[in-house]
Amino acid sequence: MPTDYERDLARIADELASLADEPASADRATRIANCLYRRASMTGDLGELEEAEAAVDAGIEELGPWPDLCFLKANVDFKLHRLERVKAALELSPALRASSEGRALQADLDLEEGRDEEARRGYESLVEDDRSWSALARLANLEAKLGDPQRADELYAEAVDELTAKELRSYCWVELQRGELDLAAGRYSDAEEHYDRAESAYSGDWLVDEHRAKLCAGRGRLDEALALYGSVAARASRPELHQALGDVYLRAGSPEEARPWHDLALAAYLDSVERGGVHYYHHLAHFYLESRPDPEEAVRWARADHELRPNLETRALWNRAVEAEERRAEAAARPEARREEVRHPPVGDHRLVAGSARPGEGGAGQRDAHA
After folding, report:
1. Distance in angstroms (rounded) separating the CA atoms of residues 354 and 194
2. Is residue 123 within 8 Å of residue 142, measured between CB atoms?
3. What average pLDDT does range 328-350 have in this prediction?
4. What is the mean pLDDT of residues 175-198?
5. What are the strands, taking DSSP E only, across 153-296?
C-alpha cells in the first residue's frame, strides 16, 4: 500500500500531466510552478527546485508580475538563501507585499538578517490578524532561536490546534519541530512521541526517519542511526544526509566508512558554490568544524554565511569557528606539536572538487546512496 507521501507525489504528477494539455493562462502557469515547487519541497531535491524556479521565471516573463508567481519566486529564493532576490520578488508585486503571505516573507527576511524585534512584530501582527498555523509556527521558530524553547513549544501546540484534517503533512512537520526542541534538551522519550505522532499523521515522509536517525544518534544507538540514515540517503539524495551518515560512522569508530560519505557531501557543497550557490555556506562551516576539522576553512565559510545572513545563529557559528582556529594555532605553537608535525607530514589535501567517488565505488563504504 502506498504511503501518504507517495500518494501526494503521485497526485502532483497527475496534476502536472493534466496541465500539459491546458491552454496557456496565468492560472496554468501558476499551477505548474506550484506543483513543481511542492514536489521539490517534499523531495528536498535542489535540482527539482531549480526546475520550479525556471517555470516561475518563464511565467513571469510571459505574464508579468502575477502575485502568485512572485510569491513562488520569493519562496524558491528564500530556500536557496538568496535574500536580495527575495526582496526583489516582493518589490515586483505590491499586491503580494500587502498580503499575509508577503508580510510573512518580510518577517522571515527580518529574522534572517538579524532584525529580531521587527520579525517578532511581523509575526505577532499576522497571528493577531488571522491566527493561522503557519504564523504561529513562525513565531515559535523565532522563540526557539532566541532561547525560549518552552514558549516555542506552546506556540507549536497552538499551531497544531489550528490545523485542519486535510493538513496532515503540515501537522507532521510541526510535530517534528516539537520533537527537535525535546531532542535538544535531551528529552529523548518526549521527542520519540512527537516523531511517532508525525509518522502516524503522515506516513512515508523521509524527514521523519531523518529525525529518528538524529534521535538514535543522540541516544548512542549508532547502529540504528546508521541504518536509518542509510535508508533516508537512498530515498533523498541530499549532501547533508551524506554528511550526517559519515559523522555517525566517525562516532562509531569507522573513519574509512565515513570517508566516502564525507567526500560525496563535500563534492556536492563545493559544486554548488562553484555554480554560484550560497545555500551550503553554513553546511561547509559545520563540515570543517565537525566532519573533517579545518578551522581556517570553517572560519572562511562561517564568515561568508554571516555576511549573507547576519543573525544570531550565523554569528554563533562564526564565533565557534574562530575559537577553533585560535585553539589550533595555540596547539601548533607548542614545541611538542611542532615535533609531531615533523614526524607525521600531511598525506594530501582533503579539499575535494565535484566528481569524487561515491560510497560503494572502489570498495569503501556501503552501497551507493543513489542506487
Report:
1. 38
2. yes
3. 58
4. 98
5. none
Q: Per-domain residue ranges for the chain?
A: 1-98, 238-371
Among positive and negative, which fits the CA dihedral 7, 67, 272, 173? negative
Distance CA 245, CA 238 (A): 11
- For the stretch 104-125, pLDDT in tens is 999 999 999 999 999 999 999 9
- Within a 10 A sphere around the Cβ of 84, how many other Cβ atoms? 10
Quote the cell numbers at residue 44: 528536498
How many angstroms separate the Cα of 301 from the Cα of each of 58, 67, 282, 316?
Answer: 33, 35, 7, 13
Most confident of 274-278, 328-332, 353-357: 274-278
State the cell numbers at 182.
Answer: 525535546
CA distances from 278 to 3, 58, 197 (A): 34, 23, 34
Domain topology for 1-98: 1.25.40
pLDDT of residue 26: 86
Task: Return the percent helix, strand and coil in the chain, to nearest 5.
Answer: 75, 0, 25
Return the pLDDT at 226: 98
Average pLDDT taken over every residue of the chain: 91
Closest alpha carbon to 237 in 43, 94, 33: 43
pLDDT on residue 371 = 32
Looking at residue 331, what is its pLDDT? Answer: 87
Please answer whether residues 237 and 45 qualify as being in contact, where contact means their C-beta atoms are separated by less than 8 angstroms: yes
Q: What is the pTM of this model?
A: 0.88
| Per-residue pLDDT at 97 | 93
Residue (of 198, 259, 188) closest to 224 by Cα position: 188
Quick one: cell of 191?
Answer: 521527542
Element (H, E) at 328: helix 312-333
Query: How far is it, in rounded angstroms, from Cα 102 to Cα 93?
Result: 9
Q: Is 186 exposed, middle or buried (0-12, 13-18, 19+ CB in 10 A)?
A: exposed
